[in-house]
């Protein structure tokens, strides 16, 4: 393997916007991220279901006849 052609790999602390720090290996000297597993809604279980403009109600109205036919059968 040739010398001096590969970047130097070292341990760094990646810092999230929430303040969480994770130790990683990288060729970068520092890393800042906006979201991590400590603050992401998928991992924290604090997901919110947002019904914008009544999409669920519109769907139910549009397919109400279809669902009624299946219920009768």
Summarize the structure.
The chain is α+β, with helices and mostly antiparallel strands and 73 residues long.
Note the main attributes of this structure:
73 residues, alpha+beta, Rhinovirus 14, subunit 4, three-stranded mixed beta sheet, 3 helices, 29% helix, 22% strand
Question: What does this protein structure show overall?
Answer:
With 73 residues, this protein is α+β, with helices and mostly antiparallel strands. It has one domain: Irregular (Rhinovirus 14, subunit 4), CATH 4.10.80.400. Helices cover 29% and strands 22% of the residues. It contains three helices and three strands. Strands 2-1-3 form a three-stranded mixed beta sheet, with no helix packed on it. A hairpin with a 4-residue loop joins strand 1 and strand 2. The longest helix is centred in the last third of the chain and has 9 residues, at 64-72. The protein is elongated and about 75 Å long. It starts with 9 loop residues before the first strand and ends with a helix. Pfam families: Ribosomal_L31. Keywords: Metal-binding, Ribonucleoprotein, Ribosomal protein, RNA-binding, rRNA-binding, Zinc.
């Amino acid at each position: 393997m040739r010398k001096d052609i590969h970047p130097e790999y070292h341990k760094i602390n990646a810092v999230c916007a929430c303040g969480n720090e994770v130790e990683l290996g990288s060729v970068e000297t520092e890393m800042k991220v906006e979201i991590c597993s400590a603050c992401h809604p998928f991992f924290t279980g604090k997901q919110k279901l947002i019904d914008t403009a009544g999409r669920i109600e519109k769907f139910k109205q549009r397919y109400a006849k279809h669902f009624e036919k299946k219920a009768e059968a």
